[in-house]
Amino acid sequence: ANRPWDMVPSQGQSQPGSKLQFRLAGYPRKHNEGRIEVFYNHEWGTICDDDFTLANAQVLCRHLGFVTATGWTHSAKYGKGVGRIWLDNVNCGGSEKSILDCKSRGWGNSDCTHEEDAGVVCRDERIPGFVDSNVIEVRGAAVLWGLPRGVPWSWCTHPAAALTPSLPPGRLYAERQQLHYRLHSVACTGNEVHLSLCPFEFYKGNTTGACKGGMPAVVSCVPGPLFATGNRIRLKGGAKPGEGRVEVLRKNEWGTVCDDRWSLLTASVVCRELGFGSAKEALTGARMGQGMGPIHLNEVQCTGSEKSLWSCPYKNITEEDCKHSEDAGIRCNIPYMGYETTIRLSGGRSRFEGRVEVELGAGSNGTPKWGLICGEGWGTLEATVACRQLGLGFANHGLQETWYWDASNVTEMGLSGVKCSGHEMSLSQCQNHGTNVNCKRTGTRFAAGVICSETASDLLLHAPLVQETAYIEDRPLHMLYCAAEENCLASSSRKANWPYGHRRLLRFSSQIHNNGRADFRPKAGRHSWVWHECHGHYHSMDIFTHYDILTPNGTKVAEGHKASFCLEDTECQEGMQRHFACANFGEQGVSVGCWDTYRHDIDCQWVDITDVQPGSYIFQVGGGRLGGGAVAGSRQRQPGLTQGAA
Question: Considering the entire predicted model, what is its pTM?
Answer without folding.
Answer: 0.51
